[in-house]
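User: Just a sanity check before I run the rest of the batch. Below are the structure tokens for the first item. I only need the designed sequence back.
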């Protein structure tokens, strides 16, 4: 049961990602946390995964233009910045499944009409 608004938990988790705060990320993940990438590949050991990711992409940040929740599912729409070129925006959709005020699943999708329809995102 979530005591905190799931949107707050998802945004806190993302702030830890943007800050490259491994301890913060660790503290906001469930023990069985799963990350699912754009290709549908699932990863479980995400503490080490995030460490490697931040090493490969030291300027990575997510910027959300829209956040909505449906119970324990939070949908975040925006873009990622991967390089020092702040104009190189990688538009995407993220979902966060929140359990007991922790992120049990963090998934990223291509921002396509098909995925918006699948996730029932209204224009």
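Assistant: Here's the designed sequence for the first item:
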């Amino acid at each position: 049961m979530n005591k905190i608004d799931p949107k707050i938990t998802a945004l806190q988790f993302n702030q830890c990602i943007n800050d490259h705060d491994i301890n913060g990320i660790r503290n906001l993940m469930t023990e069985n946390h799963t990350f699912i990438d754009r290709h549908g590949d699932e990863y479980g050991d995400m503490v080490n995964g995030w460490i490697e990711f931040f090493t490969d992409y030291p300027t990575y940040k997510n910027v959300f233009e829209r956040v909505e929740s449906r119970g324990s599912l939070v949908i975040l729409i925006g873009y990622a910045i991967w390089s020092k070129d702040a104009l190189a925006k990688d538009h995407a959709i993220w979902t966060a499944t929140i359990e007991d005020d922790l992120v049990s699943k963090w998934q990223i999708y291509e921002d396509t009409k098909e995925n918006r329809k699948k996730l029932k995102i209204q224009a």
